[in-house]
DNA sequence: ATTAGTCGGTATCCATTTGATACCATCACG
DNA sequence: CGTGATGGTATCAAATGGATACCGACTAAT
């Protein structure tokens, strides 16, 4: 089968120009920015863990071991701005701050949790692929 | 596929201490690394676009407008190493390189495409949340 | 009274990553 | 001969990430 350099096969069906329709494959589409936030290691873990019950900042920090305060703080701020988590401050002492998932965030939770579950269930397959890849010689150019 | 198939275990009587159970919430779990690859803007777009039909490097580059050659190259290399895409070189001239999604990658595709679709369908809600967030005053400390 | 600890963060610094740009060899086409 | 297509690498600047230190206000233990 010779995959000749066929003429550019314009991808069909994506080119709906009707209405303010968004397309993540358009380089200037604002969805790219949103996608960048969703498709983030920490976002997956945070929204995955905010499973119906709100958590305080340090509770979250301990639940997601390995995240630094700065990055957790930044990520939560971004998620709050995008309407995916709600931040509520209680004037206790010391101050208590609770983070809860919003209804909008809930519509995303299943998908994000699926990502985490995929990593867990397919870890062995990925490790096997990595070993096989690393075992092969460094791609000498054969002629 | 048998995850427990290990060549170097020569002690059949020795019960394995449960299956290698992975947990993305454990900081040292290797799933964190895999999750970091999956939860990536470009991974979502690449695997989402490798929709059953293989694409050449530059086809992919044009399909995902906005990605630089370097990043596309790096990301594809990583995806190949993790067994999610297969790279095939055809000795044409100029050389042709095709990237196809693997069976393993296919088990992930729906979830990743769901992410992209979420961004597209909920973009308006996110934009509204952002406007509301940005409108409020810069959180003066009230006492 | 002193010390240590909790709370939810900033501030600062440096390493890693990312992205833009240029460049490469080979060949086809006009 | 000049241009364009192929799939990349090289180089450098900019943005990001993570580790660490620090903060103010208060509590609990010493």
Written account of the structure:
Two copies of one chain form a homodimer. Chain A has 143 residues and is mainly alpha-helical. Chain A has helices at residues 31-38, 41-49, 57-63, 69-81, 103-121, 123-135, and strands at 55-56, 85-90, 96-101. In chain A, strands 1-3-2 form a three-stranded antiparallel β-sheet. In chain A, strand 2 and strand 3 form a beta hairpin. In chain A, helix 2 (41-49) packs across helix 5 (103-121). Chain A starts with 30 loop residues before the first helix and ends in an 8-residue tail after the last helix. Residues 1-17 of chain A have low confidence and may be disordered. The interface between A and B is large, with 62 and 63 residues. Chain A binds a DNA duplex (30 and 30 nucleotides) through residues 5, 56-58, 61, 67-74, 89, 92-97.
Q: How many individual helices of chain A?
A: 6
State the low-pLDDT regions of chain A, or none. Answer: 1-17
Order of helices and strands of chain A: HHEHHEEHH
Bin the helical content of chain A: 40-55%
In whole angstroms, how far apart are the ends of chain A?
Answer: 20 Å
User: On the 0-100 scale, what is the average pLDDT of chain A?
Assistant: 83
Question: Biggest sheet of chain A, in brief?
Answer: 3 strands, antiparallel
Radius of gyration of chain A: 21 Å
Largest interface: A-B, 62 and 63 residues
Strand order of the largest sheet of chain A: 1-3-2
SSE-based structural type of chain A: mainly alpha
3D shape of chain A: globular
What oligomeric state do the depicted chains represent? homodimer
Strand content of chain A: 5-15%
Give the number of DSSP strands of chain A.
3
């Amino acid at each position: 089968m010779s995959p000749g350099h066929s003429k550019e096969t314009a991808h069909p069906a994506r080119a709906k120009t009707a209405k303010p329709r968004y397309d993540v494959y358009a380089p200037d589409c604002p969805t790219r920015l949103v996608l960048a936030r969703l498709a983030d290691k920490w976002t997956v873990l945070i929204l995955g863990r905010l499973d119906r019950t709100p958590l305080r900042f340090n509770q979250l920090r301990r639940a997601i071991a390995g995240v630094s305060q700065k990055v957790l703080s930044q990520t939560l701020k971004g998620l709050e701005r995008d309407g995916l988590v709600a931040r509520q401050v209680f004037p206790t002492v010391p101050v208590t701050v609770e983070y809860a998932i919003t209804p909008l965030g809930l519509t995303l939770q299943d998908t994000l949790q699926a990502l985490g579950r995929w990593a867990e269930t397919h870890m062995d397959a990925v490790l096997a692929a990595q070993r096989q890849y690393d075992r092969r010689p460094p791609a000498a150019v054969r002629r």
